[in-house]
Amino acid sequence: MTDPEYDDQDPRFPGLLADIADLHGRFEDGYSADDIRAVFGRIYDEGGPYLVCVWDHVDEYGFGGNSQFYAEEWDGGLFEVQPDIYRWLSGQQETPGPPGSWLCAPVAEPTEFPGSDDFHNYARADRSR
């Protein structure tokens, strides 16, 4: 369960943790690009940040390889996010922490990705061409 006290600490995200509480442990057995779209889309629809997953590659079978989570700004800039989000989604901890603490430093590396599903998944390499 999430701690409703967290929601009261940041008025930018009223009720967010309660609204997404059912996502706890959703990535316990891993995740796919479809899972990322569904879960990150839900977090955003409930008023959370726009989270994205950057995969190593995309090919004719879909997104694959190692992946990292980020938050994306409206202008395309990326921010690192707290590992608490992954730990919570994978069931390793009970709360993702206060939503206001999820975003960390801006990503300094280039954020242009050749592969994308135009939603919440990007790839560093596009092998489908």
List the helices and strands and how they pair.
Layout: H1 5-9, H2 16-19, H3 33-45, E1 51-59, E2 62-72, E3 78-81, H4 84-89, E4 103-106, E5 115-116, E6 121-126
Parallel strand pairs: 1-6
Antiparallel strand pairs: 1-2, 2-3, 3-4, 5-6
Radius of gyration: 15 Å
Number of helices: 4
| Domain count | 1
* Largest sheet report: 6 strands, mixed
- Tell me the structural class: alpha+beta
Approximate strand percentage: 25-35%
Number of strands: 6
Helix and strand run: HHHEEEHEEE
Spatial separation of the terminal alpha carbons: 44 Å
Percent helix range: 10-25%
Mean pLDDT metric: 90
Which shape, going by the Cα principal axes? Answer: globular
Strand order of the largest sheet: 4-3-2-1-6-5
Q: Spans of 5+ residues with little confidence (pLDDT < 50)?
A: 1-8
3D structure, described in words:
The chain is α+β, with helices and mostly antiparallel strands and 129 residues long. The chain has one domain. The protein contains 4 helices and 6 strands; from the N terminus they run H-H-H-E-E-E-H-E-E-E. A 6-stranded mixed β-sheet has the order 4-3-2-1-6-5. Strand 2 and strand 3 form a beta hairpin. 25% of the residues are buried.
Write a brief structural summary.
With 129 residues, this protein is of the alpha+beta class.
